[in-house]
Amino acid sequence: MNTLVEFLMGTILLVFRGGKKYYAWMAFLVTVAAVGMGAWVYQLQHGLTITGMRDPVSWGLYIANFTFLVGVAAAAVLLVIPAYIYKWGPIKEIVLLGELLAVSAIAMCLMFVTFDLGRPERFWHLIPGLGTLNFPASMLSWDVVVLNIYLVLNLGIAVYILYSAYQDRHPNYKLLWPFIIFSIPAAVSIHTVTAFLYNGFPARPFWNASILAPRFIASAFCSGPSFIILAFQIIRKYTPIKIQDRAIFKLAEIIAYAMGINLFLLIAEVFKEYYSATVHLAPMQYLFQGLHGQSTLVPIIWTAIALNVTAFLIFLVPRLRENFLFLNIGCVFMFIGVWIEKGPGLIIPGFVPSPLGEVWTYWPTTPEVLITLGIWAIGLMIYTLLLKVAIPIEVGEFRQIKDRLKGIVEN
Amino acid sequence: MSRPKVTTVDPKQASRRKFLKGLAAGTAATTLAGKALAQGGFMSYGSWEEYFQKNYREMTPDEVQTTLKRFEAKYSREYGKKVTVKGTPAMENVLFGYALDLNRCIGCRRCVYACVDENNQSREKPQIQYIKVLRFQDGEMELEKSDRYYDPEQVPEEGHYYMPVQCQHCRKAPCVKACPIKATWTEDDGIVVVDYNWCIGCRYCMAACPYEGRSFNWADPTLPADEMNPETHYLGNRPRMRGVVEKCTFCIQRTREGRYPACVEICPVGARKFGNLLDPESEVRYVLEHQRVFRLKEDILTEPKFFYFFG
């Protein structure tokens, strides 16, 4: 137990160790988070009436971000599969960093859904044993289950590997292996279940398309790795951790294939709706062309398509994706493009027109945007702090021992 | 029909000053968050018993009685008059059904407001309405071409017909399937109800409903004491709180006592018929047997117990 206490004390010390840039970054995040939490206090006082949501569009920015971030979290699977199963040397040491991203993303997801609840203080109604979880009938109950399992799983694996490294021990792979294997279907399942959450209602034709879950997975393989590529460049610049170019370019290649599939599925969807032109076309018209003079989403979704197609071309051409300037532009474009497409571009048209034909425009309010930014800041803070602790342990700095990597990154 | 036709309120109206105040408060976020949760959340509970009470369906008969008494006391205190909260169960061999004659409906919206008066909905900012009356051009029935904000000098209007829509009390209700915590369910007499004290306000049921049958309390409901209907049912028209979903219950507080729903009673042209689908002598059965009826969005097979006909 003493080691554990020492471990925890050590992590606290690590968190406060850092240069000017680190402190500036953290100060920025703390400020944005504080403003966001201030706005949340305001929301708690007055209710969800302070958001732009109303009965016709009863989910908005919060659920949009939730959906997108489930994809980012699921993308950790991308790192786990090649690293653990196929033993790709260059990717192996970065698996842990991907898992920590998954943990941070899930934490943000849970915040977004909690902040979206009308009665957040009644969360215990969801806890099996205390409450009455409507399992297996409700897809939302499935999501609660798989997201929590995924969070515990990733946190557990990461902490165990780090703790072993800290104790200068090899992780017991016999023990760890089943969990690692399990985390792969778990990652696929969180995103599939989240797609099914929207998928299952004939009342919402825009979501009621079987292409939804495959598209979710394809776009997750774009947004998650885009973020990881950017994060890894920062990590290798400011820490002793070595991430080879090869690993980064491999991720970029995977993104190209995923975006290709995503765009193909989009075309399939657009064809089906526009060619058959039934009443189910209306939400797509609202999204891409505007409906009854209401066209708030139109410029936004076309921006997303332009960003995604540009990024796709960059990632497709090896000479461009292996040029860091283009690579980084591609990552930023991809991340924003997928956020729009899978966030507001998916949630809002699901509600418009309403089941009885009302076309009502949703636009988030200032407090709603601030709360959203606040949650992003908290999420990035969690990721930064996790890395701050994990990297020194992983590279053996924690005890000033150079070759502590053995347990984690033995090739 | 001069009453305002408010169904949604512009969120941009939310006061900026209040917001800045909230923002300033945010600097001491942690402690204040707790305080705000207490104000917005816990303070609205009359007691710890209310916060920790079980799902209505899991309560023993004794617990139900205690709960009803507790709410009676709370509401009587809050509204300054004697309020009853009943828990009248479903009657044996009763399955409620509804039929609406589109030929008779004149689009006057009296049903909309009788419903609001009876069921203690929030009166303004926003006013919550369970019934939405859609106006169609003759020869049309495409929902997207309907108009729910029609506001003429006089109804009915030449060349138009009207279709009131409310909760259709589906036999295979998508909302019940969707609810992650069984806060909404179908009673034995076919009424789809919500336990307002169990609902967490995730609004997944609203995404699931094909008929816009559900409304959310975005703000604290506004219900003046003198307009409050003190004859209530736990699963029906008792006062709601902010952050929960509510809906038409076929006026459960009336119909379980053998009375008509308020919308049926008020309809000036007799377009609305209500009764027991299991009783061959009932009005609603007469309609089903003697008229050509249809159900809204029949193709999605939610099997509403709400029928439309052209009498």
Query: What is the helix fraction of residues of chain B, given as a range?
Result: 25-40%
Instruction: Estimate the helix proportion of chain A, in percent.
Output: over 70%
Largest sheet geometry of chain A? none
Q: Please tell me what the overall shape of chain A is.
A: globular
Count of helical regions of chain A: 17
Number of β-strand runs of chain B = 12
The computed structural class of chain B is alpha+beta
The CA-CA distance between the termini of chain A, in Å, is 31 Å
Please explain how this structure is put together.
The complex is a heterodimer of chains A (411) and B (311). The longest helix of chain A is centred in the middle third of the chain and has 32 residues, at 245-276. By secondary structure, chain A is an all-alpha fold. Chain A has helices spanning 2-15, 20-46, 61-74, 76-85, 89-92, 95-116, 139-166, 173-199, 212-238, 245-276, 282-288, 297-316, 318-321, 324-342, 344-351, 366-395, 406-409. Chain A is globular and about 65 Å long. The model of chain A is unreliable at 400-411 (pLDDT under 50). Chain A has one domain (2-409). Chain B is globular and about 60 Å long. The model of chain B is unreliable at 1-22 (pLDDT under 50). Chain B has a 4-stranded mixed beta sheet with strand order 10-2-12-11. In chain B, 46% of the residues are buried. Chain B has 311 residues and is of the alpha+beta class. Chain B has a domain at 96-309: Alpha-Beta Plaits, CATH 3.30.70.20. Chain B contains 10 helices and 12 strands. Chains A and B meet through helix 2, helix 7 and helix 16 of A and helix 1, helix 2, helix 6 and helix 7 of B.
Write the layout of secondary structure elements.
The complex is a heterodimer of chains A (411) and B (311).
Chain A: H1 2-15, H2 20-46, H3 61-74, H4 76-85, H5 89-92, H6 95-116, H7 139-166, H8 173-199, H9 212-238, H10 245-276, H11 282-288, H12 297-316, H13 318-321, H14 324-342, H15 344-351, H16 366-395, H17 406-409
Helix pairs in contact in A: 1-16, 2-16, 3-6, 3-8, 3-9, 3-15, 4-6, 4-8, 6-7, 6-16, 7-8, 8-9, 9-10, 9-14, 10-12, 11-15, 12-14, 14-15
Chain B: H1 16-25, H2 29-41, H3 48-52, H4 61-79, E1 84-86, E2 96-101, H5 110-119, E3 132-137, E4 160-165, H6 174-178, E5 184-186, E6 192-194, H7 204-208, E7 214-216, E8 231-233, E9 245-247, H8 252-255, H9 262-266, E10 272-276, H10 283-290, E11 293-294, E12 306-309
Parallel strand pairs in B: 1-8, 2-12
Antiparallel strand pairs in B: 2-10, 3-4, 5-6, 7-9, 11-12
